[in-house]
């Protein structure tokens, strides 16, 4: 079995967990990383690496299809929101036509989660609670929101990783926005369409993985954690929690979006128990590791779903109340023109075994 993880970047743990899933299932296979950066940490952890142009380049699509034709993978996963946009606009269909399982939302559903204004409108029409969202360019709507709510959130409309996120009281936001309305250049004013305002609905923030088969279908699993800390727009520490409060929400999201594989969902659970959806990332998210170390095994489920065998019945079980915290790590690798330092045979064998099982 061949698995491609594209835009893998620094997520060495995910490469290793897919390698472990193959090994533990007794499946002969490789995990191959695609990334435009040959020095990406995952290039060292993967069984193979292929350079690919950045997805913003005109050459990206042809280069990707050439790699797919060469490697003929069974499963293709992307970890980048903007690459997923490119895939949703027809490229994922070309991969599927080549027999590659590609868990990517269709174009309309992807746009509904990539554009936070559209997401708010789509979810509200579906009866899913989500904060009211208005564009900064809509002056009347912004002032109405500031008059109605004591605290607000400002962030990028198309953002990823909490880009542009600001938290204001209504008075602070009023001063902030009025200064920009008065002093903006024409070019800056055009950018007001790219900034959204939302009420801060309060409550505790949770992360969910809502999981279906990689080709789509009913919800197969829900993995939940309460966020304890954030760093650079990604959860840095979290505690696993029961998924019961989110079962109805997961079903409604799947009915609305047609999930394939898994989506990462940010939720605020208010004091009255209402879950408000803040963000939907249609990929492995930065919160999944916290449930994996607590016992869940989504890579195993992906293998089973791709190849058509029954997954272990406990693949979505995890310890409740288990706290995880991310930490710094480093991995080393040789450059292509460098001769590795010879190692004794016994040492080489031990390294090979360790890499195979993801130690």
From TrEMBL:
Record protein name field: Carbamoyl-phosphate synthase large subunit
Keyword ATP-binding: yes
Boundaries of every ATP-grasp domain copy: 120-307
Class of this enzyme: ligase
Organism name: Enteractinococcus fodinae
EC number in record: 6.3.5.5
Pfam family, one: PylC-like_N
Molecular function, one GO term: carbamoyl-phosphate synthase (glutamine-hydrolyzing) activity
Coiled coil location: none
Superkingdom classification of source: Bacteria
Swiss-Prot/TrEMBL keywords: ATP-binding, Ligase, Nucleotide-binding
Keyword presence, ATP-binding: yes
């Amino acid at each position: 079995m061949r698995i491609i993880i594209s835009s893998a970047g620094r997520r060495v743990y995910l490469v290793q967990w897919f390698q472990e899933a193959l090994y533990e299932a007794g499946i002969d296979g490789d995990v191959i990383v695609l990334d435009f950066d040959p020095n990406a940490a995952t290039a060292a952890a993967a069984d193979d690496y292929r350079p690919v142009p950045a997805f913003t380049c005109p050459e990206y699509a042809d280069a990707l299809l050439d790699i797919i034709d060469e490697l003929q993978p069974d499963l293709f996963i992307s970890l980048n929101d903007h690459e997923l946009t490119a895939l949703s606009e027809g490229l994922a269909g070309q991969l599927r036509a080549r027999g590659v399982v590609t868990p990517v939302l269709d174009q309309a559903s992807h746009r509904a989660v990539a554009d936070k204004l559209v997401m708010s409108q789509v979810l509200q029409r579906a009866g899913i609670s989500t904060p009211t969202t208005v564009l900064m360019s809509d002056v009347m709507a912004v002032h109405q929101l500031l008059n109605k709510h004591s605290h607000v959130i400002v962030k990028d409309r198309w953002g990823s990783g909490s880009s542009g996120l600001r938290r204001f009281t209504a008075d602070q936001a009023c001063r902030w926005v009025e200064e920009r309305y008065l002093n903006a250049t024409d070019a800056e004013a055009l950018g007001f369409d790219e900034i959204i305002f939302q009420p801060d609905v309060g409550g505790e923030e949770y992360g969910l993985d809502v999981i279906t088969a990689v080709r789509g279908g009913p919800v197969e699993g829900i993995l939940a954690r309460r966020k304890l800390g954030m760093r650079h727009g990604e959860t840095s520490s979290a505690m696993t929690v029961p998924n019961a409060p989110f079962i109805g929400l997961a079903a409604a999201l799947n009915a609305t979006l047609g999930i394939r594989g898994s989506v990462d969902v940010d939720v605020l659970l208010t004091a009255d128990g209402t879950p408000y959806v803040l963000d939907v990332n249609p990929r492995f998210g930065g919160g999944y590791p916290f449930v994996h170390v607590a016992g869940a095994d989504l890579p195993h489920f992906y293998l089973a779903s791709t190849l058509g065998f029954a997954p272990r019945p406990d693949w979505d079980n995890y310890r409740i109340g288990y706290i995880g915290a991310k930490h710094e790590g480093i991995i080393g690798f040789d450059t292509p023109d460098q001769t590795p330092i010879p190692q004794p045979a016994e040492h080489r064998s031990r390294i090979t075994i360790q890499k195979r099982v993801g130690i």
